[in-house]
Amino acid sequence: MIEFDRVAKNYDGRPIVADLSFTVAQGEFCALVGSSGSGKSTTLRMINRLIERDGGTIRLDGQDIATLPLEQLRRRIGYVIQSAGLFPHWTIRNNIATVPRLLGWPEDRVSKRVDELLALVRLDPATGAKYPHQLSGGQQQRVGVARALAADPSVLLMDEPFGALDPITRDALRVELRAIHQATGKTILMVTHDIDEAVQLADKIAILADGKLVQFGTPAEILGHPANDFVRDFIGGTGIGLKLLSLQRVGDHLRPGLTATGASIAASAPLTEALSEMILRHTDRLPVCDDKGGIAGAVALADLVT
Amino acid sequence: MALAAITLLFVLSVTAMPLLAPVFAWAFPAIVPPVYAGDSFATLFLYHAALVVTSSIASIVLGLGGAIFATRRAGAEFRPLLEALATIGQTFPPVAVLAIAVPALGYGDLPTFVALALYGILPILKNSMAGIAGVSPTVLEAADAMGLRPMQRLWRVELPLAAPLILAGVRVSVIVNIGTATIGSTVGAVTLGTPIIGGLIGDKLPYVIQGAIVVGLFAIVADMGFERLDRRLRRLAARQ
Ligand SMILES: Nc1ncnc2c1ncn2[C@@H]1O[C@H](COP(=O)(O)OP(=O)(O)OP(=O)(O)O)[C@@H](O)[C@H]1O
Ligand SMILES: [Mg+2]
Q1: Which of A62, A85, A112, A174 lies in disulfide reach of B138, CB 3.0 to 4.6 Å?
Q2: DSSP code at position A29
Q3: Where on the phi/psi map is residue A185: left (φ > 0), alpha (ψ -120 to 50), or beta?
Q4: A87 CB under 6 A from ligand 1?
């Protein structure tokens, strides 16, 4: 759990972050969004004290971070940055083992943990013996995530972790990050520019503008009820409807009795996919299959807007 | 292979110079004896090497220490000053440094040692500052965020990544010192420069040639040794 309580940061007398209060609950995935220069990275880096705040309190699992020894605090927090920041002179295994070794784990436990993590981020075990420059950007970022998770930290901080990757790699890593979140139950706070990424991944979204929190809520709350014009513009203006649709599943609007022809769509697919199919096939209903592949009913165009 | 051949040649030059006596006697019949007959070349080499090794160690300690200090937060404000000092210092010829050291320290090994050590600091200081300051900020941020203590960060991350540049500085420093140490003989230090200086004063060209051959081969062997060390480090640095 991460609690911000009236946190402030100034540079040269200019407030960069002001009166910031919000809480990321245990196990929650929170996205911190806002335009460039709005103070997202500053906010994130105040948690592991790469930047010292000028006012307010930050608590980690109920403990004021100011009361913890600096290195001890940092070893409890996983931190992932855009360009991975791997140590170029260490093998992948040694990179991942950094924090466990700092914590003095016995070597056999470190080694077992590294094996687990390579599997978790879906890297081939042979990758462990390589050096960072031998890996693609996407693979390096997987290592970055593995390294951050190595000592089983209670929270994971990520600063635009996929910002430097191509769209396909980014999508693949997003899907895996969600799987990792579900598998590990970590509290995650992720900075991103990309509102779609936030909507796709996060349980909660915090929107910053000029260092102030302008809205905090679930993706559905924010898309459904933007707090002001700034938020409305930021989350995509006229595209908001489609984003809301993407939050819902075909199964949520299933009509069991209804029949339709053609290829079926999975109940777990987002509604935007159903809409796209209807447009392509010039039809107003699609058959829906459940996760075993049997036809469960149909979804109708009229239901998408109710 | 080349290193082994040159090293062999160098060892021969140190141990077997008297064997060349007939050659020098034939080329310079007027000079007797034809091969320098003061301290043996092996003795001269040992004195010379001792001077170079001790002064280089002092240069490394001071140069690298200064660079580490200037790249810490506490020393950051001294960095421009040290950089300017290192750059300007290198424009002084080493002889000038020696000339300054003598009035302060008298004749003999000591002023030579001090002059070599001081002059040798400059390339090490300059290169080490560049190397340490050149470590990627994201790598440093990751190291901090992972909870490495400042000393752990220095030893495990900054120095290994700066090592190729630091080594290049040490290499320049040592090679220059091998050459400069010969001048120490003008102020009374016993070095491979002794036959050279003696030969120049006494108009005995073969002694100059003999001393120069040994010093030259010494410098080449040392440089090739550094070359090999450097290649090994670069293989690691390619990983950056
Ligand atoms: N060390 C510093 N000194 C002065 N100003 C700074 C410093 N670090 C950041 N700032 C300013 O603080 C503001 C917020 O910076 P921050 O890096 O938190 O923004 P951000 O939301 O992460 O932006 P981006 O999306 O571009 O990464 C910016 O206006 C920046 O110029
Ligand atoms: Mg940022």
Answers
A1: A85
A2: E
A3: left
A4: no
* CB pair distance less than 8 Å for B239 and A74: no
SS3 assignment, position A216: strand
Are the C-beta atoms of A33 and A233 separated by less than 8 Å?
Answer: no
Rounded Cα–Cα distance for residues A31 and B238 (Å): 36
Question: CA A280, CA A276: separation in Å to the nearest integer?
Answer: 6
Q: Is A16 in the pocket of ligand 1 (CB under 6 A)?
A: yes
- Here the tokens at position A12 are 């040269």
**Ligand 1: does its nearest atom lie under 6 Å from the Cβ of A34?**
yes
Q: What spacing in Å lies between the alpha carbon of B181 and ligand 2's midpoint?
A: 54
pLDDT-based confidence at residue B234 (cuts at 50, 70, 90): confident
Reported as type and span, the H/E element at residue A43 is helix A40-47
- Cβ pair A88:B142 closer than 8 A: no
Query: Residue A18: its pLDDT value, please?
Result: 94
pLDDT, tens digit (0-9, with 9 covering 90-100), for A24-40: 999 999 999 999 999 99
**Which residues, in sequence order, are CB contacts of A180 under 8 Å at separation 6+?**
A120, A121, A145, A149, A186
> CA-CA distance, B230 to B226, in Å (whole number)?
6
pLDDT at position B239 over 70: no
Nearest atom of ligand 1 to the alpha carbon of A193: 25
Q: Which of A181, A200, A204, A216 is nearest to A30 (CA)?
A: A204
Shortest CA gap B168–chain A (Å): 18
Q: Residue B109: its pLDDT value, please?
A: 87
User: Per-residue pLDDT tens for A159-205?
Assistant: 999 988 898 989 889 989 999 999 999 999 999 988 989 998 999 99
Delineate the domains of chain B, giving CATH numbers in brackets: 2-11+41-239 (1.10.3720.10)
Tell me the C-alpha distance between B160 and A90, whole Å. 10
Please report which confidence band the pLDDT of residue A302 belongs to, taking 50, 70 and 90 as the band edges.
confident
pLDDT digits (tens, 9 = 90+) for B90-113: 888 878 888 888 888 888 889 899
Of B144, B149, B161, the CB nearest to A88: B161
Mean pLDDT (whole number) for B62-77: 94
Among A59-73, A81-95, A243-257, B188-202, the range scoring the smallest mean pLDDT is: A243-257
Specify the DSSP class assigned to residue B130.
H
- In angstroms, how far is CA B220 from the centroid of its own chain? 12
CB-based contact A147 B240, cutoff 8 Å = no
Is residue A291 within 8 angstroms of chain B, CB to CB?
A: no
pLDDT score of A294: 85
**Pairing status of strand A204-209 against strand A29-34:** parallel
A90 and A133 in contact (C-beta within 8 Å)? Answer: no
Sign of CA dihedral B209, B215, B219, B220: positive
Its sign, for the CA torsion A105, A111, A117, A120, is negative
